Amino acid sequence: QKDEEISELQSNSEAKVTALSGEVSALKSTVSEKDEKDEQIAQKDEEIAQKDEEIAQKDEEITQKDEQIAQKDEQIAQKDEEIAQKDEEISELQSNSEAKVTALSGEVSALKSTVSEKDEKDEQIAQKDEEIAQKDEEIAQKDEEITQKDEEISELQSNSEAKVTALSGEVSALKSTVSEK
Q: What is the CB-side half-sphere exposure of residue 50 using CA atoms within 13 A?
């Protein structure tokens, strides 16, 4: 009996050891996963620090660009002054060239009238093309009507032929009846 009790205790203790070893291995894997997560978090913190540095650099670049924009605005103001001077020179040249423009305007108006005549002719041609297209559509519709009428005629002919055949049968029957009388 003692031996049986001992064997039972041994089997029970072996089962408990097996169960405990499973729990221990599970705990070990959980601990190793936690260590991995801690490493990942540390890496992410490093990445965040790098990104913060990049953002600071970008902010510096933005301030530099703002300074460049201010300089460009000053250059634009100078260019506007130059343009105003050029406009004054142009107005002087325009007043001098008005006589030439008056002479040329006569030629230009003659050319414009010729061009407008050509444009009118082009418009007339386009209208005529539209009219032709409409006429083609009307012709197509008329062709459809003609085909419908042909179908109606053929139906009427076939119906009238059937009626004629029926009537001729009736007439021959009547003739035979009359001949009998």
A: 6
* Encoded tokens for 26: 């599970």
Place of tokens 């991995």: 36
What 3-state class would DSSP assign to 8? helix
Determine the Cα–Cα distance for residues 6 and 178; give it in Å rounded to an integer.
Answer: 136
Q: What one-letter code names the amino acid at 177?
A: T
What's this model's pTM, rounded to 2 decimal places? Answer: 0.32
The residue assigned the tokens 């009307």 is 138
- H helices present in the chain, as ranges: 2-180
- CB-based burial of residue 50 (10 Å sphere; 0-12 exposed, 13-18 middle, 19+ buried)? exposed
- In tens, the pLDDT along 52-62 reads 999 999 999 99
pLDDT of 101 higher than 80 = no
- Residue 75 token pair: 């250059």
Q: Report which of 151, 130, 149, 153 is spatially closest to residue 141, judged by C-alpha positions.
A: 149
Q: Is the dihedral of CA 168, 170, 173, 177 positive or negative?
A: negative
